[in-house]
Amino acid sequence: MNYIIRNSILWLTITISSAAQQFDFLRYTVKDGLSSDYIHSIIQDSQRRLWIATGDGITIYDGEKFSTLRSNSGLINDYVNCFLEDTATCGGMWIGTNGGVDLYRGGLFRHFIFSKFDWSNRVNVLFRRSSGEIWCGTEEGIFVIDNHHSVQRVDTNTVLHNVSSILESDSSLYCCSANGVFVRKKNTSEFVLLISKKHNIVDLVKGTNGSIWGYASNGLVIQIKNFLITARRKLPCSDIVKLESKDSSHFVVTTNNELIEFHSLQSPYGFLRKLVSKKFLQSYSVTASCIGAEGELWIGTFQHGVVKISELHRQFFASKYFAAECNNSNIICNQNGECYITTIKNTVVIKNKSSTGFTAAVLPMKAKFFFKNSNGDIWLLKWNGSIASFEQGISKRYFSLTSLLNISLDKILCLAIDKKQRLWVSLETQGVVALDIHSQKEIKRFTMQTRLPDNSIRSLYVDSFGNVWCGGYTNGISRITEVKKDSFVLKHFDVNEGIPEGGVRASLEVFPGHLFIGTRYHGIVEIHGDTVTPSPINSRLESSGIWSLCTSSHGTVLIGTQSGIQEYDPSTSRMKTLIRTMPVYSCCVNEDDVMFAYSTLGVTIIDHVSERKSLIPPNIIVSSILVEGRPTQIPLSKPFRYDQNTFTFSFHSFTMRDNNELTYHYQLEGIETTWHEQTRAIPITYAQLDPGQYVFHVYAENSDGIRSENIASVPFVIVPPFWKEWWFMSFVVIAVVSLVASLIAFRVHHLLEIERVRSRIAVDLHDDIGSGLTQIALLTDIARKKLKQKGKRSNAEFSFDLVLNEAGKTSRELVDSMSDVVWSIDPKEKTIQDVTSRLRSFALELCESKHITFTISIADELRKIALSPTLLRTILMICKEALHNAIKYSECSLLTVSILPKEKRICIDVIDNGAGFIVAQSKDGNGLKNMKLRAEKIGGSFSIVSSPQGTAISVKVPLSV
């Protein structure tokens, strides 16, 4: 019997398989930065930048900004038809235009012109052979640019013209032209016809397995292997513009006004689905398409710029196939991965067939609610009011709920089944009833009098502990806990506990005992135990109006809001927007990680597994650097001065899917040890950096947690000011040490000088003053003895006078010696002029008594030279001794003293015209010895020359001692 019922249902099923899909899309025009809205070709280079060929130059889009190249930039012709990136040889981008070919590399253009005729320079296709040659298909034929950049024409006997594509497979060349498809086999030089022009093949595509695919504008698609047509299929479309290969048997077809995806070309029954319908592109005329590295589809149009579609791993079934009242509909997945949707008129099941994708079918059964128990079994409430279990498309009726409760079906708001297989039913204005399914008896009824939020509960949820959560329409939520068999305790959470006013629409246990509560107007509230707190993720929600909550198979939370659906990962706190702009009333995820979201437009299916496989790490570059507000060339190779210490780094990612879902992490190594995070690629500024070595790091992370493969790093150095350089610091230290040492040496020298002066004074006092005083003492003793002697008084008086005379003489000499000592140690600064004045006063008195003419002279440059006390005394004593000897013994009439500079020394000459003496016989005299010792003691020299004509004494002393 079950077999008959099952097959009857299958026969009655109405399949919805040809429904066109609809996706969110972005459109870029000249207002956004395109050079023109007339698009001819689109490619993506190895750096994921988009190159867009237009009738007015080239637009390059890096995911963030547009830049334009035209003839005023060096382009050979503004009408651009095609591109070819050459990364294997010289690098750069080959550009085919209506005026020839350009090689754009390093910001410079190199032109290649084939002929003086315009049609020879109209390049439709560029192809690089494995040998490195660039083959250029033009309206006149094929031209080749070799590795040395020499141009030659391929001799085709004028068969090939208006060339649209050139491909290579197994070293054989395939060419599509207006005259058909031609092939030049390996080791041959001639093109031979492979497919005649009657098939109207307009272009060739190379599949991922090396096969060649051709397509005609009328929808014919063929496969070529071993120079034979091995498969063909007529697609239900015309005016094909482009055929894109996603894998060996999976293609996207671009026509003038629609996009079609198909599989299994070999089978005429292969899966076919419309990605974008004619209605969707009714105002567009498609001219080009490109599948990006991240799975996004780029569509070029004739007058409306470029359209980007990022959700090719999604399917969509329009709401007209469900005839549902969306906000009262229910959606659920069973253990087989099938999705069931309740509508007002029917029930829809969506299944996944591996070869054909998802298909939707209308089941001939009417259900108002689907719900699951803790074991994953599905139950349903039929429109006839009965409760049934549901398995393999067959329902088993249990009892009539409406008859048991004596109510109409429209009074039932929602249902739930707990772990003990008790059915919880929310009734409009009558509270919640707990029923035993098997005995069909009422266990307990709950109302506002028993602490329900209100009598119209719109949300029922059973957590892992068996608690039943009842979300009210106006006044918070209540938790029903069974304390013993069929005995319950209610805990009510309202505004006093932190539940905002406005009602609860959904509940979900994220962690054991930790619930997310979705409210109508205030986002999500979290309840942990008895603690209620607003969720920190509210600031990242697209809308604060929550419709639904569910978990995925890998632990993320799907949040249906008034403005779309978002996916939140509690383990990483990442938030990703899956659908925007439309309310998502209910959602579920099957065991294969496929999400089904029901909205006002219909059901959106997102294959998370396939979508994640298509994701690639987002690229990241540091696009510009400002130093003190001025642009700086990257990389920063030269060090910066200490006052160039404010840096601004601008960066962005080359992701083309959705830049709004990227998170940027950055760090300045040298002052930071942690990573900072921001959700927009806004410039980062570091001001007033200290001198040192730094490295700026940045990487991007998408909403799926995929990071950039390489961290963009920019090292730089700020040098310190010269007064902080090691050499300057060393110089300062050495200078300070030297200064201190000099001060110490000066101090020591000064102390030694004082000590020498003290020693000299002590010697002088001992030698001169001491001996004089001793002599006076002796004379005094002699006089005393004479007075005591008896004898004649005259003799005593004579002896006494002699003694007094000697004592007076000695006293005067002591006074002179004392005067010299005091004069020499006087701290007042003295010059040679002072020495000459003292010598003059000393000598004149003596010379007058002897009738000797005395003269003293001094060089003008020596007059004001200051001398040390030691040098002053030495010069004074030598000169006085010399003058004293000359006056006393020489019997001269003329005595001269001259003081002159000579070889950084002071030369003192004392000359008389006396009788002279024999120097050798005066060795026993102390005067000459003392003068010589005094001169040598201060580093000077002493010499004496004497003859009957006179005596000359010469003393040379240094300028400083």
**Overall average pLDDT:** 81
Strand content: 35-45%
Shape: elongated
Number of separate helices: 8
Tell me the structural class. alpha+beta
Low-confidence segments, given as residue ranges, are 1-21, 266-271, 792-798
Helix share, percent: 10-25%
**How does the major sheet shape up?**
5 strands, antiparallel
Model description:
It is a single chain. The protein has 961 residues and is an alpha+beta fold. Helix content is 18%, strand content 42%. It contains eight helices and 72 strands. The protein has a five-stranded antiparallel sheet with strand order 1-34-33-32-31, with helices on one face. A hairpin with a 4-residue loop joins β39 and β40 (422-427). It is elongated.
Fold topology:
Elements: H1 2-12, E1 14-16, E2 25-28, E3 39-44, E4 50-54, E5 57-61, E6 66-69, E7 80-85, E8 93-97, E9 100-105, E10 108-112, E11 123-128, E12 134-138, E13 142-145, E14 151-153, E15 165-169, E16 172-177, E17 180-184, E18 192-196, E19 201-206, E20 212-216, E21 220-225, E22 228-234, E23 240-247, E24 250-255, E25 259-263, E26 272-276, E27 286-291, E28 297-301, E29 306-309, E30 314-318, E31 330-333, E32 339-342, E33 347-353, E34 357-363, E35 367-372, E36 378-382, E37 386-391, E38 394-400, H2 401-405, E39 412-417, E40 422-427, E41 431-436, E42 441-446, E43 457-462, E44 468-472, E45 477-484, E46 487-493, E47 504-511, E48 514-519, E49 524-528, E50 531-534, E51 546-551, E52 557-561, E53 564-569, E54 574-580, E55 584-589, E56 594-599, E57 602-607, H3 608-614, E58 621-627, E59 630-632, E60 647-652, E61 663-669, E62 676-678, E63 684-686, E64 692-701, E65 712-718, H4 726-788, H5 793-825, E66 830-831, H6 832-849, E67 853-858, E68 866-867, H7 869-889, E69 894-901, E70 905-912, H8 926-937, E71 941-947, E72 950-958
Parallel strand pairs: 67-69
Antiparallel strand pairs: 1-34, 2-29, 3-4, 4-5, 5-6, 7-8, 8-9, 9-10, 11-12, 12-13, 13-14, 15-16, 16-17, 17-18, 19-20, 20-21, 21-22, 23-24, 24-25, 25-26, 27-28, 28-29, 30-57, 31-32, 32-33, 33-34, 35-36, 36-37, 37-38, 39-40, 40-41, 41-42, 43-44, 44-45, 45-46, 47-48, 48-49, 49-50, 51-52, 52-53, ...
